[in-house]
Amino acid sequence: MLKQILSKLPKKVPKSDTSDSAQSDSGSATTFANVFQCTNVGVAISNKLNAVKRVSSAVFPASLSAGVEAVDPHVSFKDVSNIQKHNLFISKLNLCCSVYNINYPDKNCKEEDVKHQTLVELVDFVSSGSAKFTEPSIAAMCKMCASNLFRVFPPKFRASASGGETEDEELMFDPSWSNLKIVYDLLLQFINYNALDLKVAKLHIDNAFIVRLLDLFDSEDPRERDCLKTILHRIYGKFMVHRPFIRKCVSDIIYRFVFETERHNGIAELLEIFGSVICGFALPLKEEHKMFLCRVLIPLHKPKSVSSYHQQLTYCVVQFIDKDPTLASTVITGLLKYWPVTNSQKELMFISELEEILDATIMTEFQKVMVPLFRRIACCLNSYHYQVAERAHLLWNNEHIFDIVSQNRQVILPLVFTALVHNTQYHWNRAVLNHTENMRKMLSQMDEELVFACQHKLEEEDSRSSAAAERRRVTWERLEAAAIANVQPIAVVGDVLASPACSVAC
To answer: What residue spans carry the region label Disordered (predicted)?
Structure first.
């Protein structure tokens, strides 16, 4: 009974059967003339219809193709409609994710040429403003950049004695730069794109992406570091949510450089970025920014390779003092802490930086550090390296420094006067002697009575030291005479030497 009831129910027609039956019905309604006309039209536009077709999942991953129709990436943007350009853009991005081994250029020569041409097309397409950066296209762009840019650099075999690169070393250039340059241009245009949705983009340009991008600053190719500098600066400016993380990552890189390896190729570029970042700090400065100065920038004076980034470091330090003049004493104290003892070239850089810092220093901060500061300057005035001594003398030609010194001359002149007199008597270089004489005349014009008092005090100290030296000489002569008087002849008893009795109790 049950089987009879079920057999009378209408059977469900499959979708394929329904579509086939619909097609057959519509086909029966058409005439032979219409079919012939449609056939001719199809032959006429067959080339354009072949432009849109399915591609493999290797070129268009399933994770990025949800709701998007893939297009053959080898087709030009001119050969597809405006609706299909977005899908073609994503297909071309995924085609460029393939990375070829540069050690075997002949093996993948054709594929490499296709990739290069595709990258050029992508740059032209984005620069024209026709691109639409939806979430699938943003994901494809970040994936393509990560595949081509993020890589591990080979070990550094060119180890120099100073612990870093020197000016005499030959620059290293990446052999795959022709493609890398286009990828960097594409990434920069992507970040600068006016219609870019930052809320969606920050999901893909995330912390992991930024960390890998910062790792690339260790590249030995200066062209790559210059591109990275521009891109990271744009990311810092556009993605406000990433700013604290970027500052933290850069601090970690500098910590590792200063206290562990003393080897990194991109410190100068990172400091260039932060030079403009510091200019944008709001007042009053946050405690975080002051800690960055004390724990990151000031210790950067320690490494031997400071010459490779000293100009950028000085700019950052001076920007901090311009923002908050109360930081000047902290900076000068840190500079004195890391002052070089045996490296004259490094000492010259420190004196130049000190002059720029003093130009931005207010009186109250100067008075906190003027005693240790001018003790160090006095040592520089006496340096037997004539360039160091000459540069220290030229500090006094700075109007601002001369003004603050004149207002505190009662403390400063006694600290440097002895060094000037010592130069007059003992220094070997004629140019340094001329600077010393000019400086003594300048100080006499500043305060003649104080100079005379310093001269009188120096003479008294010399007389006291001469008297002490004379007393020491007389004491040693008496000791020598007493030692000679107490010597007795050695008696020989048999084969044994009989030593005289010791007159000093042991």
So the answer is: 1-27
Contact 101, 107 (CB under 8 A): yes
Q: What is the mean pLDDT of the chain?
A: 82
pLDDT digits over 346-359, tens only? 999 999 999 999 99
Cross-strand partners of 491: 498
Backbone angles phi, psi at 144, to 5 degrees: -65, -45
170 — pLDDT class (breaks 50, 70, 90): low
DSSP letter (8 states) at residue 263: -
DSSP strand E in 413-494: where? 491-493
Q: What is the 3-state secondary structure (H, E, C) of 1-63?
A: CHHHHHHHCCCCCCHHHHHHHHHHHHHHHCCHHHHHHHHHHHHHCHHHHCCCCCCCCCCCCCC
Residue predicted with more confidence, 355 or 1: 355
In this structure, the number of other CB atoms found within 10 A of the CB of residue 236 comes to 20
Let me know the angle formed at the C-alpha of 343 by 337 and 344, rounded to the nearest 5 degrees.
105
Q: What is the DSSP string of 174-233?
A: -TTHHHHHHHHHHHHHHHH-TT--HHHHHHHS-HHHHHHHHHGGG-S-HHHHHHHHHHHH
**What's the rounded Cα separation, in Å, for the pair 87 and 125?**
13
